[in-house]
């Protein structure tokens, strides 16, 4: 049996692009003091180029392979407790979902399509949104991924209309209950 100290106590943020994973991750980092790890940022550091460049040069399947490898590295035994902000499509592979669920408290952040469109409007580093029908693409991604997010989420939160502080405090309180129940 694991001791309480051996339990993974990471907070893992999942959800579609534009739902606030990075922003809320930074707020949680400030409140909790855990380091923030952004899987997309790790991929860019590992490959030495942007995700948009990876998609353009090597394609989405290659990106998903690298993404899975980065997640596997994050799940290594003995790693420090962290807040992990993930890319929106990381849940598409079954093994990734298993790893995410084993890492700690998984929070599915959600936002309506209009909010996602607004939050991603000026960002050209979203290769999956390089289309004439951004709304249609977001709706399709939501429909495809919602069951996968739901499968592993310990908590689901709507981020639209709430202050980041409110969201972060709610996550921390829920995480405390989650980890206390597992202890």
Would you kindly provide a written description of the structure presented here, covering whatever features stand out?
With 183 residues, this protein is of the alpha/beta class. It has one domain: Rossmann fold, CATH 3.40.50. It is built from eight helices and five strands. A five-stranded parallel β-sheet has the order 2-3-1-4-5, with helices on both faces. It starts with 9 loop residues before the first strand and ends with a helix. The N terminus is likely disordered.
In short:
The protein has 183 residues and is of the alpha/beta class. It is built from 8 helices and 5 strands, in the order E-H-E-H-H-H-E-H-E-H-H-E-H. It has one domain: Rossmann fold, CATH 3.40.50.
Helices and strands in order, then pairings?
Blueprint: E1 10-14, H1 21-32, E2 36-38, H2 39-47, H3 51-58, H4 60-74, E3 83-85, H5 94-103, E4 104-110, H6 113-120, H7 134-152, E5 155-158, H8 164-182
Parallel strand pairs: 1-3, 1-4, 2-3, 4-5
Helix pairs in contact: 1-8, 2-4, 3-4, 4-5, 5-7, 6-7
Approximately how much beta-strand content do the residues carry?
5-15%
Distance N to C terminus: 11 Å
The major sheet is characterized as: 5 strands, parallel
Give the topology string: H per helix, E per strand.
EHEHHHEHEHHEH
What is the CATH class designation?
Alpha Beta
Number of helices: 8
Strand element count: 5
Which sequence of strands runs across the widest sheet?
2-3-1-4-5
CATH superfamily: P-loop containing nucleotide triphosphate hydrolases
CATH A-level architecture: 3-Layer(aba) Sandwich
Q: Please state the structural category.
A: alpha/beta
Rounded to the nearest angstrom, the radius of gyration is 16 Å
How many domains? 1
Question: What is the residue-mean pLDDT, rounded to a whole number?
Answer: 88
Q: Might you state the CATH topology name?
A: Rossmann fold
Model regions low in confidence, pLDDT < 50 over at least 5 residues: 1-7
- Helix coverage percent: 40-55%
